[in-house]
Amino acid sequence: MADRMPIKVSVSSSDGVVVVAPEGEIGYHEAPAFRIFLRQGFDQKPRRMVTDLAGVSYMSTPGVATLVEALQLSKKLSIPLVLCGMNERVLAIFEIARLHTVFKIVADREEALRA
Length: 115
Fold this sequence. Notes:
single chain, globular, six-stranded mixed sheet, 30% strand, 6 strands, alpha/beta
């Protein structure tokens, strides 16, 4: 089995909006690091949190669970969470689990910044 590359995540902040943008696959090994970056974003107390998934090629159950935890934290802190940039493969996972009905999901980062 080939070694997996550690997840790369960029975090940026502008006008009270934090954008967390992971790259690659988010599975069992990557989810803990992804969770840390999301929590660091919430720690900045933004008015909105955007998770740009445009760079994510695949997400398994641990990655989805990490986003569900982020949604719970967003509700607890009253900080809206917006997901954007999902490819068809990742969006299908959310639709199968019916999570597209509980998350705010938009097409791209520009729309997420306006949401």
